[in-house]
Amino acid sequence: NQFGNIAVDDISFRPGPCPVVPQTAAKDNGDCNFEENMCNWSNPAPQDELDDVDWARQYYYDQSGPTIDHTRGDGKGYYMNLLPNTPLILKGGTRGWLVSSRFQPSPNPQCVSFHYWMYERLIDPAGLSLGSLRVYVRLIKPGKPLSPLWRLYNHQGERWF
């Protein structure tokens, strides 16, 4: 929207704890750089009623998101972006979920890594803000809620982290 942009790129899952320094993504079930397609990632089905706005695979063709993607480092690479020009994004509490495929449970630690872009064009302390980017895990068991793993709020800069 005109206030800013949240995007993600280069998602990776791997067994074991996360490394201290970034690694090159492996070709595992949850890995995706979005260059060819959305891999095993999707928007929830409308009947699930989880979100109000969808994520879309995009590149810098419409100038609504980052000018470059993280994978290629140019304007021709793809990343996931909340659909631009969606009126609902202006409403507080609007949600857009990007859902992975199911993973086999493991008693050992698992690592998720990704790059994000959280840029707010106009920063007004009294007005609407960009919002947050959050990561949750959901166990596929009755009565098990979503468990938050990570969250970040508002403007972080006009670059990939």
UniProtKB/TrEMBL annotation:
<dbReference type="Pfam" id="PF00629">
    <property type="entry name" value="MAM"/>
</dbReference>
<dbReference type="InterPro" id="IPR000998">
    <property type="entry name" value="MAM_dom"/>
</dbReference>
<dbReference type="GO" id="GO:0016020">
    <property type="term" value="C:membrane"/>
</dbReference>
<dbReference type="InterPro" id="IPR051560">
    <property type="entry name" value="MAM_domain-containing"/>
</dbReference>
<dbReference type="InterPro" id="IPR013320">
    <property type="entry name" value="ConA-like_dom_sf"/>
</dbReference>
<feature type="domain" description="MAM">
    <location>
        <begin position="30"/>
        <end position="161"/>
    </location>
</feature>
<protein>
    <submittedName>
        <fullName>MAM and LDL-receptor class A domain-containing protein 2</fullName>
    </submittedName>
</protein>
